[in-house]
Amino acid sequence: MTDTAHSSSGKSTAVNGIEFDNTRPQERSRTGMSADALRRAISDHLVYSIGRPAAVLTSQHYYMALSLAVRDRMQQRWMATTQDWLDLSNKVTCYLSAEFLMGPQLGNNLLNLGLESEARAALAELGQDLDEIVACEEEPGLGNGGLGRLAACYLDSLATLERPSIGYGIRYEFGIFDQEIREGWQVEKTDNWLVSGNPWEIDKPDASYFVCWGGYTEQYQDIAGRHRVRWIPRRVLQGVSYDTPVQGYGVNTCNTLTLWSARSLKSFELEAFNTGDFYKAVEDEVLSEKVSKVLYPNDEPEAGKRLRLQQQYFFVTCSLQDVIRIHTERVGLPLSALPDKWAIQLNDTHPSIAVAELMRLLIDEHDLSWDEAWDITVATFGYTNHTLLPEALETWSLSLFGDCLPRHLELIYEINDRFLDEVRAAFPGDDDRVRRMSLIGEDGGKSVRMAHLATVGSHFVNGVAALHSELLKDSVLKDFYELWPERFGNVTNGVTPRRFLALSNPGLRQLLDETIGDGWITDLDKLRGLESYVDDPGFRERWRKVKRANKSRLAEYVHSSTGIELDPTWMFDIQVKRIHEYKRQHLNALHIITLYHRLKSNPGLTIPPRAFIFGGKAAPGYYLAKRIIKLITAIGDVVNADPDVNRFMKVVFLPNFNVQNAHLIYPAANLSEQISTAGKEASGTGNMKFMMNGALTIGTLDGANVEIREEAGAENFFLFGLTEDQVESVKSNGYRPMDYIERDPELAAVLELIADGKFTHGDTEILRPVLDSLLHHDPFLVLADYRSYIDCQERVSAAWLDGDTWARMSILNSARSGKFSSDRAIAEYCDEIWNVSPMNVDL
Ligand code: 26Q
User: Fold this and answer.
1) Closest ligand 1 atom to the C-alpha of 149?
2) Binding site membership of 150 for ligand 1 (Cβ less than 6 Å)
């Protein structure tokens, strides 16, 4: 029995000697939602968690104390959510992703809990400013870009839509590198995001799993006389979980992000592992904490392949073991019911080893038959593809794969044999098709094709924008579509309006709230209500004022981080995204040089002034991407210093584009650059963030641009460039860049300026690789789209001159961006793929 004692004040209770705060819920230091309770909570944490005397407290300490106080306020919701889905046997989504680019947590959690003004007031009483404290956060940059940020947006929507879910990933000690720009070049710095501590995570050392690696397999007969296989690893390590709460907006639902961290085993811990011959074969004290050390950049050629495979297997096996443990031990269901209780989504092929791993766990560790195991596997997994670029489709050489994961290679052979029998039965005599569809590629040395494994092992495959999903069925997965047309579909990406509107654009948020009410924040289609105000001059004026203020805010940031001064009355023309040839930042650069050239050769010329703003990281080993950064900064150096032109244009490369500064960038844009070669950008999500915040798009018919244009109306979108069909036909007829140069003297002059070293102090070598790529090996047809782009930019400038028309188009873009909420996307996943329904959490 509990021993309960009331303290004399009547305000606390002791149970088993532990003191509980008995004040009214609104007032409790741990849970109270009033400004006063929050103030007391911060003070408590400053003493009991931070432990520093008042005299030495810094903003960082206040950040920690407030964050812990906020986490306390999620704790009950978090535990209640987990308890409810264990009790109520709701179906749960598991989002397996090698990347979760969560961004700063404090501001977002305050928003979702409805605690912003309370936190501001509480800090004010303590002499602190909320914005300054929020800015102290070192964001967890555990992703490269779009795919990782998408995973984070989806967690926000899952929680807000009250869908039980777990995100599973890797707790990289070092996330995406920090980018500095020195003398115009990118310099990479280690991202040490954990140095000052992470107040959001709770480590759960009791939730840990063994991870085997390397070695060989043995066949044996079990006591029932059945033929079995066991894996004798060369090494074993351990994955321990760190959980972070994911609070839904305006609801009690608080889901979990579980990130795995690698730990080497101490020899005494291996005893738990000591079955049969196992122990002998395992090296003692294998060191392997390096597995979760660092996030790999995409577009990185070959380097560190083995470790990357180990990372993927590491987080996948920990996650699947966790699911099976919860399913069998906590919920108490048989494994045959796995697909009724869990929907596991593969975020690209990075976690696709899960198909073989679930088979191994079910067959080798849980004694299921092949057929039972296979039915469960296919019914449980779904696969989202994020790329059509053939060079980005993951493969692993057979020798590497077999050396690291010998048992999985056997299982993949068996999956493949059975699968190819199915192909032969459906397409008798079509040997070429069998070769094309095999899980094992034969071209250029044998390899395991992870996209094929993911497709064969999932009951549903989707692309991330309508065009992309169509192209998938027509290109890289065509044969699979012909075999299983019913397994293919589309879910167009979305982004969370909480972070990318409400949190990052407070000015617009207030205007929206006052104009159409605050329902838009969870039902973004409500923005349509703005359409009735487009012709209201008063409203248009307020709209423009908000944009102007956001531009001043960004200009300040630009000034502090680059020293460049921008005039907020100019058009802000922005391209932020990873630097890649297919995204064509160099096409944008050619436009800037074109304007420069026009101004220099026609002294009387005036043009509507623009600030060209770029941001984005290049993979450290992506040579040409780094030269493209140099091209942009070099143009900036010349343009910004030249009084003939800097009255009309400035060029900025903002260092270290990340989620935190993205909050300042999207709301300040007038023009959003979405200029990838048609057919190359699977979806894009930055395009959606810009649109919501009222930027107009200049773009090709690529990825989600197609749908953005459909929603906005063609008249509110600046379209240029070849279509995907045309791109293919130019290529098949042999793309000859010189043809475009010969026909276009202006283009020739622009390239000439680069070649002559105009932007590089006469040095003709630095930017030669960029020119060489444009002229001799450019799969992305930059010069083929040049004229169309330049002409389109003329239309942009003309539209900008009429401020009223521009404001009208800006409002309409925002008003019609509802489709691009991640709430819509997640509802589609839940209804059409996962069969996961809302679960109301009562406290
Ligand atoms: C692969 C192997 C080794 C190391 C790294 C990688 C790797 C890591 C990350 C490969 C790719 C990525 C990320 C891809 C990505 O972000 N794709 C983008 O996904 C977005 C969300 O669907 C889309 O909007 C973009 O169009 C797509 O480019």
Assistant:
1) 21
2) yes
Mutate to test the pocket of ligand 1, among 387, 400, 622 (most ligand atoms within 8 A of CB): 387
Q: What is the DSSP string of 429-451?
A: T-HHHHHHH-SEE-TTS-EEEHH
Q: What does the alpha-carbon distance between residue 301 and residue 305 come to, in Å, rounded to a whole number?
A: 9
Helix axes 506-516, 537-562, angle to 10 degrees: 170
Q: Are 157 and 494 in contact (CB under 8 A)?
A: yes
| 262 in Cβ contact with 292 (< 8 Å) | yes
Q: How far is the C-alpha of 667 from the C-alpha of 550, rounded, in Å?
A: 6
* Atom number, ligand 1, closest to the C-alpha of residue 305: 3
| Rounded alpha-carbon distances, angstroms, from residue 389 to 677, 678, 735 | 12, 12, 18
What digits encode the pLDDT tens for the residues 579-629? Answer: 999 999 999 999 999 999 999 999 999 999 999 999 999 999 999 999 999
Q: Which of 154, 315, 386 to mutate to test the pocket of ligand 1 (most atoms within 8 A of CB)?
A: 386
Neighbour-count burial of 11, counting CB atoms closer than 10 A to its CB (0-12 exposed, 13-18 middle, 19+ buried): middle
Task: Give strand pairing partners of 461.
Answer: 383, 488
Rounded CA-CA distance 415/17 in Å is 57
* CB 707, CB 682: distance < 8 Å: no
How is residue 145 written in tokens? Answer: 């870009």
* Residue found by looking up tokens 């009250």 in the block: 162
Q: Is the dihedral of CA 335, 341, 343, 344 positive or negative?
A: negative
pLDDT, tens digit, for every residue of 433-485?
999 999 999 988 899 999 999 999 999 999 999 999 999 999 999 999 999 99
72 with 32: CB under 8 angstroms? no
Would you please indicate which residues are annotated as catalytic (active-site) residues?
386, 577-578, 583, 685, 689
Domains in the chain: ranges and CATH: 566-819 (3.40.50.2000)
pLDDT at 100 over 90: yes
Tokens of 700: 């090709």
Give the residue, by CA position, lying nearest to ligand 1 atom 15.
147
Distant-in-sequence, close-in-space partners of 225: CB < 8 Å, separation ≥ 6 = none
DSSP labels, 185-203: EEEEE---TTTT--TT-EE
What three-state secondary structure class fits 346? strand
Classify residue 717 by its DSSP letter.
S
Plot region of 560 (φ>0 → left; ψ -120 to 50 → alpha; else → beta)? alpha
Q: CB–CB of 249/74 below 8 Å?
A: no
Residue found under tokens 């289609």: 525
Closest by alpha carbon to 74, among 200, 207, 260, 171?
Answer: 200
CA-CA-CA-CA torsion sign (594, 595, 597, 601): positive
Q: Is the CB of 97 under 6 A from ligand 1?
A: no
Closest CA to 502 of 532, 527, 536, 538: 527
Ligand 1 atom nearest residue 384's Cα: 22
The count of other CB atoms within 10 Å of the CB of residue 278 is: 16
353 CA from centroid of ligand 1 (Å): 17
Report the alpha-carbon distance of residue 506 to residue 107 in Å, rounded.
12
Task: Tell me the CA distances in angstroms from 186 to 25, 91, 145, 543, 613, one per residue in order.
Answer: 51, 46, 17, 36, 16
Residue 371, Cβ neighbours under 10 Å: how many?
9
| DSSP string over 510-576 | HHHHHHH-SGGGT-GGGGGGGGGGTT-HHHHHHHHHHHHHHHHHHHHHHHHHH-----TTSEEEEEE
What gap in Å lies between CA 762 and CA 634, rounded to an integer?
Answer: 12
What values do phi and psi take at 238, rounded to 5?
Answer: -130, 145
Counting residues of the chain whose pLDDT is more than 90, the rounded percentage is: 88
Assigned token pair, 201: 């995570």
- pTM, two decimals, is 0.95
